[in-house]
Amino acid sequence: MRLAVGLALNLLAFVLALLAQHLPAAAAYIASVAILVISASRRGRQGRREAQEQPAGAVLTPEEIKRRPVVAPEV
Amino acid sequence: MKGVLFYSGLKGGTGKTTLALNSAVVLAYLWRDVSQYPVVFLDLTPSLGTASIILMGDPARAAASPSLSDYITGKLADPLRAFYVRVWNAEKGQFRLVFSYFSQNTPYMRRQLEYVLKLVRERLSPLVALIDAPPLAIEGIVGGLVDCVVPVTTPDASAIEAVRSRIDAINAKRLRPVLNMYMPEYPVSAIHAAPWERVMESAFGEPPHIVPFDRLLHATRQAVEVEVLKLRPSESPAVRAILAYAKYLSTVVV
């Protein structure tokens, strides 16, 4: 949603600039850049969190497996 | 005693040893109170198969210990002196697996293997002997000596054909085929223009038992450990599938 608003504001800024409305265009451009930067940084944080939430088994090393006790192989 | 051969024709790297060894361990645990030596595992791979290294725990020890190679070359008169017992302790008690292997590349004849199996049957009285066949032309040696054969393949047209084209020479009851290292992201065989499950079904006459690709199995192999003894079913889909296949074996073999 934030990304869509940011892109819309960015587009609006260019349209206003074409219409010689320089002051509103600059304001819209600055607002769009701020929204887009915030949106990008949130996505980055979420990606890192997802990477950390990988199951522990996925990163088990042979040494860690070696140290584990024997599990009864129940069927 | 029923003999069960895990077979992939001339194709190596299909996960046959992983399936055979893990099945042997699961059945040994399942039948721990039924018999003193419920399961015998034979690794027929020449020059130290992976299973023998895992069961002996150390390649150097496995190479230095008496093996079936010594019986074949005449250094051992009694082949059962090349058999070992691996014991594990679990919460519900102790369980053991008897096993043997070849430490060298010693070609053997059908009658020698037949004699070994006869001694195993008479003196150890196991419920099953699980045999891990190497990817060699072994059909003439084991053909007729085993009761059942497990076709093991990977999602690979040549692996499936390698088993399909030669399995009848084993002359044993064919059990449910296993499609190992299956990756759901690649469900279709481009050569057959059909899903791998259907390709297997058309090759072997019944749908395969699927064991998914699982990185944890590779890590456990690097650790030289038995997967079902170190990984929980909840964390490894491959272990879940192997346990399910062992349960199937327990119902159809004995």
Characterise the protein shown here:
The complex is a heterodimer of chains A (75) and B (254). Chain A is mainly alpha-helical and 75 residues long. Chain A has a domain of 52 residues. Helix content of chain A is 72%, strand content 0%. The mean pLDDT of chain A is 80. Chain B has 254 residues and is an alpha/beta fold. In chain B, strands 1, 2, 3, 4, 5, 6, 7, 8 and 11 form a nine-stranded mixed β-sheet that branches. In chain B, strands 9-10 form a two-stranded antiparallel ribbon. In chain B, helix 1 crosses helix 11. Chain B starts with a strand and ends with a helix.
User: What separation lies between the terminal Cα atoms of chain A?
Assistant: 48 Å
Binned strand content of chain B: 15-25%
Low-confidence stretches of chain A: none
DSSP helical segment count of chain A: 3
Distance between the termini of chain B: 8 Å
How would you sum up the major sheet of chain A? Answer: none
Indicate the CATH architecture of chain B: 3-Layer(aba) Sandwich
Cα radius of gyration of chain A in angstroms: 25 Å
Helix count of chain B equals 11
Summarize the structure.
The complex is a heterodimer of chains A (75) and B (254). Chain A is mainly alpha-helical and 75 residues long.
Outline the secondary-structure elements.
The complex is a heterodimer of chains A (75) and B (254).
Chain A: H1 2-18, H2 22-52, H3 62-67
Helix pairs in contact in A: 1-2
Chain B: E1 2-7, H1 16-30, E2 39-43, H2 50-56, H3 59-64, H4 68-72, E3 84-90, E4 93-101, H5 110-124, E5 128-132, H6 139-142, E6 148-153, H7 157-164, E7 173-174, E8 178-182, E9 188-189, E10 194-195, H8 196-204, E11 209-212, H9 215-222, H10 227-230, H11 237-252
Parallel strand pairs in B: 1-5, 1-6, 2-4, 2-5, 6-7, 6-8, 8-11
Antiparallel strand pairs in B: 3-4, 9-10
